[in-house]
């Protein structure tokens, strides 16, 4: 398989500064346009995360977010002011490929870098702060317009002129479907097993689903979505 998703990247972004916003440490507003991304197995040179426990790591080296989603969120009045890339903290911005077209485990070529899709973005309360909307993270969770993460299979440099090509498909579960399953409002062991069977799924998601199955329950999402316990 060799299918071109995007002929040219809309924007590349990175940043390594951390800012306090309403008492919350975040690097989301410190991303800036880059002429290239130097991609290593565990990081992008010049890029870092404020919360490495929940962001970054081998399964989340790069965040890809569809630029057209900004327009939809604005139409839903979920942004207090005009926002565009890289306000979501993304590294890669494109037009033309979205969560319905990208699958868990997809092997992707960008320039001389080979990547694998690992998981959707799990929205957290920092997005509420970023966009001054108390339910932004919940809206992202429910709409599934979240973007996705990559692990790095081969290192190299990504440039704006590079195309993005799907070179191998490992599963039939899209990012949108993975979001739907993972955030089902009711415990569903059968659906969790389907997602667990996906080759390439991020280890943190694997462990989370395994905990649910062991405990026969879903964890409380209030802290992640709103920054406070329910």
TrEMBL record:
InterPro entries given in the database record: Benzoxazolinone_Detox_Enz, MoCF_Sase_C, Pyrv_Knase-like_insert_dom_sf, Tri_helical_YiiM-like
Database matches in Pfam families: MOSC, YiiM_3-alpha
Domain MOSC, first and last residues per copy: 29-167
Protein name, UniProt field: MOSC domain-containing protein
